Amino acid sequence: MMERQLDLLIVGGGPAGLAAAIPAHDAGCRDILILEREQHLGGILRQCIHSGFGLHIFKEELTGPEYAQRYVQMTLERNIPYQCDTMVLDIAPDRTVTATSPVHGVQVFRPKAVVLAMGCRERPRGALGTPGTRCSGIYCAGTAQRLVNLEGFMPGKRIVILGSGDIGLIMARRMTFEGAKVLAVVELMPYSSGLKRNIVQCLDDYGIPLLLSHTVTDIRGRERLEGVTVSKVGPDRKPIPGTEIQYDCDTLLLSCGLIPENELSKTAGVTLDRATAGPVVDQHLCTNVSGVFACGNVLHVHDLVDNVSEEAEEAGKQAAAYVAGTASDVRLVAEVEDGEGVRGLVPRRITGTVTAPVKLMFRPANVYKDAQLETLVDGEVVATRKARIFTPGEMVTALLLPKFLPQDGKCHKVSMRIVQ
Fold first, then answer.
1. Domain spans of the chain, in order of start
2. Rounded to the nearest 10 degrees, how much is the dihedral formed by the CA atoms of 282, 288, 291, 292?
């Protein structure tokens, strides 16, 4: 078993991991290693062949593979070491990382700092409680995306999609392109959980119905899926008898949410947030474990990969500063809490001397029209912002200015709320 000391270890070679490695290297941290469990760098973007990426970072519209390749190329130009086909098995509270690969066998790394960039996974059927038989033809939308875009395999020809997450919306259009008939996209909530642009471009433009306040209440088929029953649900999200719709289909795609991959974070002793299911971090992306940073979808699920890259760049810079011994002060200045209508604020902690605006991100808990976002410090409103609509499918970003946060040595309470 090989043991190795190094400065910075990045777990995950997707968009977050690569975007963290580059600024860390540019800041002078040279002893870096990226570990990626897939056979190639790039992460989930390798299978996202649709366009719409890079408008903020590169000021041009790219496909997922093109966006990923930009970061892969920047990584290669800097000769940043990476190791693919490597599975991280454990991260200990002292930052000792154990990994295994077919080429190197079991490896133990003892880095000075770790960046968690493992991404997220889809919520499977078992977590949804959908009734019916366990026949073939039921896939998570991301799995179907990989089958179609990377492996050239069509899951089926008559499709129903449960859940209106962005991957499901995009796959509705993709399956249509491949000649399949998408019968409906079924959403339990009275609103879509995807971006508005995806609803328009992937459903409306192709005449695919979106059934809000509906869910799948039965699955038919023994060996292969033969059909599903869709029912309307009431305000309590329970099916309403007599509203059943029968769809004859051979494929059901599940697009019911993403879950940050934080099993390794738990073994490292990282505190997780109940609202986001990701680590609790400060504005410098530092967790409660010294020298361990988190960024990207392992922290909280983002709408845009451009935002993942921006966040990861900050994590990489802060990790490099930690290695160099110039990390920011970790003295707790404020705790951040969700207010009315706000869910999953990131960061949860504000530390050190605050000289720059602190970016706060969250998802609205519901759809709010003609509402106002208020930022409070110790219960007093310090900033307001009006918006035509807040929706759970669109992440909201707000800035907390330094002047609103007293630097008096006390721990303050910062919160945000939506009022109508």
1. 2-121+259-328, 124-256, 337-419
2. -80
Strand partners, 220: 227
CATH number listed for the domain at residues 124-256: 3.50.50.60
- Cis before 209 (ω within 30): no
CATH of 2-121+259-328, one of 3.50.50.60, 3.40.50.300, 3.30.200.20, 3.40.630.30: 3.50.50.60
Q: What is the pLDDT along the chain (420 residues), one digit of tens a residue?
A: 789 999 999 999 999 999 999 999 999 999 999 999 999 999 999 999 999 999 999 999 999 999 999 999 999 999 999 999 999 999 999 999 999 999 999 999 999 999 999 999 998 887 777 787 789 999 999 999 999 999 999 999 999 999 999 999 999 999 999 999 999 999 999 999 899 999 999 999 999 999 999 999 999 999 999 999 999 999 999 999 999 999 999 999 999 989 999 999 999 999 999 999 999 999 999 999 999 999 999 999 999 999 999 999 999 999 999 999 998 888 999 999 999 999 999 999 999 999 999 999 999 999 999 999 999 999 999 999 999 999 998 999 999 999 999 888 899 999 999 998
CATH assignment, 337-419: 2.60.40.10
Instruction: Say if residue 177 is exposed, middle or buried (CB neighbours under 10 Å; 0-12, 13-18, 19+).
Output: exposed
Matching fold, domains 2-121+259-328 and 337-419: no
Other CB atoms within 10 A of residue 241 CB: 9
